[in-house]
C-alpha cells in the first residue's frame, strides 16, 4: 500500500507573539516543522506535501527538497489546508497521513504503528489519540462496543459523562486517500468560525458507513501541539529529556541532565562524560572516553576519542584524539586540531590547521595559520593575519618554537626547528633551525630615575 503524508504548517501562530512563524520556532535547536519532517520521512513515503501559508518562503527554505509544497493563501481551517494538497494526491490509491507541523515530539515509531493499525482494521480513517490527565479543552473520543470511533465531541459540546472521557483527539490522522479527498469536497464551513474542519471528514465518512478507527499513542507528551511559549518550553524539556536518556542508555554519562543541552543530530561515543552547563549543537560527533564541560559549547564539530574540552567554545571544526582544550578557549570555524594537541586557557584558534603534538598553552591568537607538528607557541603568541583589507597565511613548520609575546606578521613562514625569540615581531621568513630576534637591543641608563625626579621637582 502506497503511503503519502501531508504536514500542516500554514499557521502564523499569533499566540507565540513572535516575528518568527510558529513552526520555525526551535525545539532543542531544530525548528518544530523540521522535527516532524525528519520523523515522517522515515515512513517510506511515496510523496510528502507540506502545506505552507504564513512565512511560506522561510518554511520552504528550512525544509528544502525534502518535501513538495502547497500554498494555503487564506487560513480557512484544517480541512481547507489539506484540500490544498489535492492537485498532488486526490487521484491516488493508498494511505495518507495528516500531521501538524507544530507537534515536534511525535515519533516515526508512533506514526508507523498508526498506519499499521489503520490497515489492520480496514478503516477509512484512523485517529491518533492519547490519554490526557487533564483533557479539558480537547475533543473527546467516544468509542462503540467494537472499539471503533463513534464520534469526536468537542469539550464545549460534551455532556458531563463525555467530559469524564480522558482519551483525546491529537489532531493526527490516517486516511484512505481517495476517501479523504472525496469527503473534503463535502465539508462545510457552517460554524461560528466559518472554517472548514478536518474533523468533519470523520462525520462524513461515518455517515457513509465507513469504519473509523482510533490508535492510542503510548504517551500523551508525544502528541503535544505547541501554540505558545509555555508549550514550547514544555516541548523543549520533554525533548531534552528524551535525547539525554537516549545517550545515557547508550553508555554516555551525563552528570546533570537537567542542565545539559544536546541536539537531536549529535552522536556521542561510549564512556564520554558530559558535565553540567554543556551545550552540544548541530551535527556534532564526539568520540569515546571524552570529557566535555562543564560549561562548554560545541557546535557542528567532530571530536575524536579521549579528548577533554572544559569551559570552552568550538564551532564547525575538527578536533583530534587525546586533545586538551581549555579552560576558556575558543575554536572558531574551519579549524583542524590534530591529535595530542594542547590548547590552553584564553587561546583563540581561527581557520587554522594545528598539527599533532603542538601546544598553545595560554593567551594566544592563531588565525589563518598552518601550524606543523610538535610546535610550541609561547604565551601571547599572535599571528597578525589582517592588514585592514586582506587576511594572510602564517606557516609555522614542524618543531618550531615561538617565544612569548611574539608577533608573526603574515604572510610569513617560520621554518622547521626554528626559534623565534620572546618579544619579537617577525616580518620576514625564518629559515629552518635559525634563531630569529626582532626586537630593540636593551639599553640601561644608570641613575636615570634620580635625574628624572630632580627634573620633576624643579
From TrEMBL:
Q: Where does acetyl-CoA bind?
A: 385-386, 422, 439
Where would you say this protein principally sits, based on its record?
Answer: cytoplasm
What Pfam family is a match, any one?
Hexapep
The active site is formed by 362
Q: In which pathway is this protein known to take part? A: Nucleotide-sugar biosynthesis; UDP-N-acetyl-alpha-D-glucosamine biosynthesis; N-acetyl-alpha-D-glucosamine 1-phosphate from alpha-D-glucosamine 6-phosphate (route II): step 2/2; Nucleotide-sugar biosynthesis; UDP-N-acetyl-alpha-D-glucosamine biosynthesis; UDP-N-acetyl-alpha-D-glucosamine from N-acetyl-alpha-D-glucosamine 1-phosphate: step 1/1; Bacterial outer membrane biogenesis; LPS lipid A biosynthesis
Q: Which residues bind Mg(2+)?
A: 102, 227
Q: Which reaction does it catalyse?
A: N-acetyl-alpha-D-glucosamine 1-phosphate + UTP + H(+) = UDP-N-acetyl-alpha-D-glucosamine + diphosphate; alpha-D-glucosamine 1-phosphate + acetyl-CoA = N-acetyl-alpha-D-glucosamine 1-phosphate + CoA + H(+)
Enzyme class, spelled out: transferase
Q: Which UniProt keywords apply?
A: Acyltransferase, Cell shape, Cell wall biogenesis/degradation, Cytoplasm, Magnesium, Metal-binding, Multifunctional enzyme, Nucleotidyltransferase, Peptidoglycan synthesis, Repeat, Transferase
Q: Does the keyword Methyltransferase apply?
A: no
Which stretches of sequence are listed as region N-acetyltransferase? 251-458
Q: Where is this region: Pyrophosphorylase?
A: 1-229
Q: In which family does this protein belong, per the annotation?
A: In the C-terminal section; belongs to the transferase hexapeptide repeat family. In the N-terminal section; belongs to the N-acetylglucosamine-1-phosphate uridyltransferase family.
Functional summary from the UniProt entry: Catalyzes the last two sequential reactions in the de novo biosynthetic pathway for UDP-N-acetylglucosamine (UDP-GlcNAc). The C-terminal domain catalyzes the transfer of acetyl group from acetyl coenzyme A to glucosamine-1-phosphate (GlcN-1-P) to produce N-acetylglucosamine-1-phosphate (GlcNAc-1-P), which is converted into UDP-GlcNAc by the transfer of uridine 5-monophosphate (from uridine 5-triphosphate), a reaction catalyzed by the N-terminal domain.
The name this protein carries in UniProt is: Bifunctional protein GlmU
Q: Which organism is it from?
A: Anoxybacteroides amylolyticum
Q: Please name the gene that encodes this protein.
A: glmU
